[in-house]
Specification:
By secondary structure, the protein is of the alpha/beta class. It contains five helices and three strands; from the N terminus they run H-H-E-H-E-H-E-H. Strands 2-1-3 form a three-stranded parallel beta sheet. Helix 3 links the parallel strand 1 and strand 2. Helix 1 runs parallel beside helix 5. 26% of the residues are buried. The mean pLDDT is 92.
Length: 136
C-alpha cells in the first residue's frame, strides 16, 4: 500500500519539481539503535532529515505540504524522512535531524507509519498541485 502512494507522489510531484519519492529500507548487521543509526547515516548524505518520532511536532496535512513546498523553494534537493525500528531512533540521530515529525501521541507500528507517511507525502504533493484529493 505504501508503494502505491509513493508512485502517485512521484508522478504528481514531477511537474512541481518534487521527487522522485522512494522508500529505502536498511537493515543493521548488529542489534540496537546505534547500529541502526550507523546504517541509516550512510543513506543521509546531503539530505535535509526529518526524523519520525512520537515526541516530534505534529503537523496538519496543509502545514506539512507548506513545509515541503518551502524546503523545495529554499533549494533543498534531498528531503529524507527517517522511521526507526521497533525501539525508535538512536538519540544521536534524533539530535542530528533538522526536525522531528510525530503522527500524534500514540505509538504506531513501523509498517503502519510507513504507509501513513507515504500517504501524507502524496497528500502534500496533491495539496501543492491544487488537487481536490485533500478536503478541509
Amino acid at each position: 500500500m505504501a508503494r502505491d502512494y509513493i508512485d502517485r507522489a512521484t508522478a504528481a510531484g514531477r511537474a512541481l519539481g518534487l521527487g522522485p519519492v522512494d522508500i529505502l529500507e536498511v537493515e543493521a548487521k548488529k542489534p540496537g539503535k546505534p547500529a541502526e543509526a550507523e546504517v541509516l547515516r550512510a543513506q543521509l548524505a546531503e539530505a535535509y532529515v526529518i526524523a519520525c518520532d512520537e515526541h516530534g511536532t505534529a503537523h496538519t496535512s496543509r502545514a506539512l505540504a507548506s513545509k515541503i513546498g518551502k524546503l523545495r523553494d529554499d533549494g533543498v534537493r534531498r528531503l529524507v524522512f527517517v522511521i526507526g525500528g521497533a525501539d525508535g531512533l538512536d538519540p544521536a540521530l534524533l539530535r542530528d535531524a533538522r526536525e522531528t515529525l510525530a503522527f500524534g501521541v500514540q505509538t504506531w507500528p513501523h509498517a503502519l507509519v510507513r504507509v501513513m507517511l507515504a500517504e501524507q507525502v502524496y497528500r502534500a504533493v496533491s495539496i501543492l498541485a491544487g488537487s481536490p484529493y485533500h478536503r478541509d
